[in-house]
Design a protein that fits this description.
heterodimer; A: 246 residues; alpha+beta; Ubiquitin-like (UB roll); Fumarate Reductase Iron-sulfur Protein, Chain B, domain 2; 2 domains; five-stranded mixed beta sheet; B: alpha+beta; FAD/NAD(P)-binding domain; Flavocytochrome C3, Chain A, domain 1; Methane Monooxygenase Hydroxylase, Chain G, domain 1; five-stranded antiparallel beta sheet
Chain lengths: 246, 639
């Protein structure tokens, strides 16, 4: 199939970016979206152009490296799908596809489609852990946890830290990301000791870094490639409130 | 010849590690913050080591090429992590786990290291659980287990098909905690390009800052590599596309021996190659073989839809050939069996290079919900990639390059032949022999990081407490930086006509065709000649757009591929040297009548550790004899 691409090009963090059009004539429906970009880059390299810089690694939807804002949606049109899992069969022959980097004040563009998501690491370092030194853990089965809680904690823990929630949100809020980590620990006995300090530290850090507020549009949940639920945000709000009250 | 001393403590197998810990040298807590440790790679092994050493109070500088440690390829490990807890009361023990790994590795791993890996496995599960890793649980609240290939007990802890992700995120959270405490400084988006040796000891590294393009120097009292395997040498593999061997290779070229490079695991259950554009292959976890049955049609070239082929016309070839282990035969055995059926014309799908992995019986017996609970994300992943629904029809799978058992040679301290340079996790060679058993990679990575390096690295650093912080202005740093710049400039100067990736694809195909699941003298010699030819072409024709002082992904890629050419040669040379079949290394000249791998213990019961002695010289082999004292060396049978 034939497609037209409108891709954001930006030489570096300081440069002004712009959209550049590219035509690709031999796109197979079997190609993944990133393989389509690989093919474009191959063409650009051979013809003396500059390939498009974009991030990717595992190419199976688990590392969270790939991003891209495709036709106005983070990770493109398919539900619960990362860009690397997206295939060209989701697009029509002759269509125009617009590709931008994730847009958020807290995710500055570094080059073309690469953004800096280091803010997530800073939020994690603020409190996204259980304080347990190697060597001091007790036997695993001495902590009994209801299967339901454990399964729920797992669902929250499957967040891949891609930042789609931030990119989808009109306020560029990181609430879904932060709340998924807070919920994972809040649901497990292991996380309860530091629950209050954790939620306060992570939320404060999130605010410091310039992520916006949550105004309940739920765009984050709709665009999350891992289906992380906004119920996590409600849980985090409860945790935060109770931490502030006590 | 350098004598290889594995420094294994004396005494009974089960006492060795206890003895080591009781007699190892220690560093006073007040002295630890004066000692710097560089950690390269922050996957499960690296993040675990960084956090443990940070907890002890050492000053850690941790490097990774990704934007954050959470993306390291440990994240993609699916099925589980082993431990000898014996929670299932089905006969497990440290010895049993050790024995399974030794046998699974086809008697080519070092006994003492493997036993220790088994011994620390339980503490690892406890540590990860305490960190909040949400492993699967039973209704009573205890942890659940499942079974994996090559064993007859259920010892695998799991978090659906995302165990690696959950373990890595646990280790990453521990690392983050140390970042907050100030014991660990993270240097993300850095490619390690060389190691710096001062007076015979590893004292620093040279990295390229992947954002600014600057070449940076960092010094330390010890350097730990946790840089993973080199499976992407095949181009198409189950690894992340950016995984590479450059850090380990730079250590090899500075004097660290490289052991058993030809031991590369071909994983039996990957989604088959679908088209020419494909950049990687996606694994379908071995855990699926707990409930999935593997089959091909009994009739050659039967092109009917799998669901239309009646039961009596299906050949469950693993159950037929290996009745004791059935679908849970080890990976090397299962991969070759799949290849054998496909080569004989029984393969399925458009290309005929696939076999069925069928869940029909399991869904009938347990219900779809139970299968979804165990493997939900894998089924989804399969459907997204292939467009086919595995709840309704069998998955199609085929073997793919996966894990490298070979790696930097290390002694019992996990130290390479360069003093002060350690290698942990997949980057070393020590625990998996010629074939790795499922769910033992996460186990080794976490064990190395959490519970082994804190002792062995301290043991080394105890003699360094009087060594002041090293200046990066030393001539050794100048030289290393110059070598790195020269190589980069040489690459940029080629200014040819073809992309780096196009060479990588061709290199991968040579290795897959002539040094893949099956090899022989002739094919290996052919591969060697073809790699040499292609390498020459690469250095004359590669085209790298852009400059070095910016984000330049093509420059990163080309540097890694340049190293893959060299490691490819060492893989082939090692394969040629080892005129026996063992585990994943299957020399067609050496097989039993039934087509199984035939070892030659008399001549090859050794670790082949290769020493670099110059670019155009044949590497020198050093042999570490494997004298089994605690297991009886037998024919490895799963029948």
């Amino acid at each position: 199939m034939k497609i037209t691409l409108k891709i954001w090009r930006q030489k570096n963090a300081k440069a002004k970016g712009k959209f550049v059009d590219y035509e690709l004539n031999e796109v197979s429906t079997e190609m993944s979206f990133l393989e389509m970009l690989d093919a474009l880059n191959e063409k650009l390299i051979i013809s003396g152009g500059e390939p498009i810089a974009f991030e990717h690694d595992c190419r199976e939807g688990i590392c969270g490296c790939c991003s891209l804002y495709i036709n106005g949606q983070p990770h493109g049109p398919e539900e619960k799908t990362t860009t690397c899992e997206l295939h060209m069969r989701s697009f029509k022959d002759g269509s125009t596809i617009t590709i931008e980097p994730f847009r958020a004040k807290a995710f500055p563009v570094m080059k073309d489609l690469i953004v800096d998501r280091n803010g997530f690491d800073k939020i994690m370092a603020a409190g996204g852990f259980v304080s347990i030194d190697a060597g001091s853990a007790q036997d695993s089965n001495s902590i009994l946890i209801k299967k339901k809680n454990s399964d729920e904690a797992f669902n929250s823990a499957t967040c891949i830290g891609c930042g789609a929630c931030v990119a989808a949100c009109k306020n560029a809020s990181a609430m879904l990301f932060v709340s998924a980590k807070v919920s994972q620990f809040a649901l497990l006995e292991q996380g309860k000791v530091e629950a209050k300090e954790r939620v306060v530290a992570m939320v404060n850090k999130m605010d410091d870094l310039g992520f916006g507020n949550c105004t309940n549009t739920y765009a984050c949940e709709a665009e999350c490639p891992k289906g992380i639920s906004v119920a996590n945000i409600a849980r985090m709000n409860r945790e935060f409130l109770s931490a502030k009250l006590t | 010849m350098t004598k290889l001393d594995a420094k294994i403590p004396k005494g009974p197998l089960a006492d060795k590690w206890t003895t080591y810990k009781a007699t190892a040298k220690l560093v006073n807590p007040a002295n630890r913050k004066k000692l710097d440790v560089i950690l390269v790679g922050t996957g499960l092994a690296g993040a675990a080591a960084a956090s443990s050493l940070g907890e002890m109070g050492y000053n850690i500088k941790a490097f990774c090429f990704q934007d954050t440690p959470r993306r390291a390829h440990s994240v993609a490990a699916q099925g589980g992590i082993n431990a000898s807890k014996n929670y299932k009361n089905d006969g497990d023990s440290d010895y049993r786990l050790f024995y399974d790994m030794i046998k699974g590795g086809d008697y080519r791993a070092r006994e003492a290291n493997v036993y220790r890996a088994a011994e620390v496995s339980n503490a690892t599960i406890d540590q990860l659980t305490a960190q909040g890793v949400p492993f699967a649980r039973e209704y009573g609240g205890t942890l659940d287990n499942r079974s994996f290939g090559g064993v007859q007990v259920s010892r695998t802890f799991y978090a659906k098909g995302q165990t690696g992700q959950q373990c890595l995120l646990g280790a990453y959270s521990g690392l983050s905690r140390q970042v907050k405490r100030g014991t660990v400084t993270m240097y993300p988006r850095r490619d390690m390009l060389d190691i710096v040796i001062v007076e015979g000891k590893a004292r620093g590294i040279i990295v390229r800052n992947l954002v600014s393009g600057e070449i940076e120097r960092h010094s330390a009292h010890a350097v730990i590599l946790a840089t993973g395997g080199y499976g992407t040498v095949y181009y198409l593999s189950t690894l992340a596309v950016n995984s590479n061997a450059t850090a380990a290779w730079s250590a090899y070229k500075k004097g660290a021996f490289f052991a058993n490079p030809s031991f590369i695991q071909i994983h039996p259950t990957s989604i088959p190659v679908l088209n020419d554009y494909q950049a990687k292959l996606t694994l379908m976890s071995e855990s699926l073989r707990n409930d999935g049955r593997i089959w091909v049609p009994i009739k050659q070239g039967d092109k009917r839809h799998a669901n239309d082929i009646p039961e009596e016309e299906r050949d469950y070839y693993l159950e037929r050939r290996y009745p004791a282990f059935g679908n849970l035969a080890p990976r090397d055995v299962a991969s070759r069996a799949a290849k054998e059926r496909c080569d004989a014309g029984y393969g399925v799908g458009e290309t005929g290079l696939a076999v069925n992995l069928d869940f029909k019986d399991a869904i009938e017996a347990q219900g779809q919900a139970a299968i979804e609970d165990k493997y939900g994300n894998l089924f989804e992943m399969y459907e997204k990639i292939t467009g086919l629904n595995p709840y309704k029809e069998p998955m199609r799978i085929y073997p793919a390059g996966h894990y490298t058992m070979g790696g930097l040679w290390v002694d019992y301290n996990l130290m390479t032949t360069i003093p002060g340079l350690f290698a942990i996790g997949e980057s070393n060679f020590s625990d998996h022999g010629a074939n790795r058993l499922g769910a033992s990679s996460l186990m080794q990575c976490a064990g190395d990081g959490y519970f082994i390096t804190p002792y062995t690295v301290s043991n080394y650093l105890a003699d360094e407490i009087k060594t002041p912080r090293y200046s990066t202005e030393l001539p050794e740093f100048d030289e290393a930086e110059k070598a790195v710049r020269d190589k980069m400039n040489k690459l940029l100067a080629v200014n040819g006509t073809e992309s780096a990736t196009s060479f990588h694809k061709r290199l991968g195909k040579i290795l897959w065709d002539y040094s893949g699941m099956l090899r022989n003298e002739k094919s290996l010699k052919k591969a060697l000649a073809l790699v040499d030819e292609l390498k020459e072409e690469f250095w004359n024709k590669v085209k790298i757009p852009g400059v070095d002082k910016e984000i330049n992904q093509e420059l990163e890629r080309a540097g890694r591929i340049a190293d893959f050419f060299e490691i490819a040669k060492l893989i082939i040379i090692d394969g040629l040297n080892r005129k026996e079949s063992c585990g994943a290394h299957f020399r067609e000249e050496n097989q039993t009548e039934g087509g199984e791998a035939k070892r030659d213990d008399k001549n090859y019961a050794y670790v082949a550790a290769w020493e670099y002695i110059g670019d155009n010289k044949a590497p020198k082999i050093h042999k570490e004899a494997l004298n089994y004292q605690f297991v009886e060396v037998k024919e490895r049978s799963y029948k």
